[in-house]
Amino acid sequence: MNDRLDKHVLGTYLSLRIGVAVIAVCFPFLLWIGGRIYVGLPLQDSMSAYYHATVDGRSMRDWFVGILFAVGVFLYLYKGYSRIENYVLNFAGVMALGIAIFPMEWACGESCAKLSLHGSCAILFFVCIAFVCVRCSPDTLRLLEDPEVQARYRRRYQVLAVLMIVSPAIAWLVNTLFRQYGSLVFYVEAAGIFAFAAYWLTKSREIALTESEARVLRGEI
After folding, report:
1. pLDDT tens across 45-82, in order?
2. One-character DSSP codes across 132-193
């Protein structure tokens, strides 16, 4: 009975990680393609613009908010390996909700704030996940017996962390200083989202190799 319960718990956590990664990967394409087919929108300057952009009363706002809420709730409910990882993921979840609740400024031209509440939540969200990549991943990486494999995963997490820091930074710079570059911000934001998805896929693979979750359930660590 315990073995069946353990497998159920492990399968649930794996499904959650894969699920949030798939949702994240689909997010930019859903806004882009759904916005064009359902709403009739051209590619917007940023992903956040899909909250406001409408054609004949139709928009992608519900999808934008709904996906962010799904990601935010996942991060808040997901239990990290350590207490600090759990706290940071909880905070990242709250920031994801903040991105949805506090929309970007719209049609404000040169009077737009250089750093809005919406933008602050987005930056803090990515900083939190980057922190987990670099600071919290070693907690389970030490369970990998092969030093080369351990080093390879550490490099992957470092690269993903850099992407998640650089992406919102570039998006902010382009949006603030170079407004004429159109949809470049959308692509930069999408890159950050893909890095977020890649983290959860990589984490799932690493956990499968170390069996860290199974060992925790068995009381071995």
Report:
1. 899 999 999 999 999 999 999 999 999 999 999 988 88
2. IIIIITHHHHTT-S-HHHHHHHHHHHHHHHHHHHHHHHHHHHHHHH-GGGTTHHHHHHHHHH
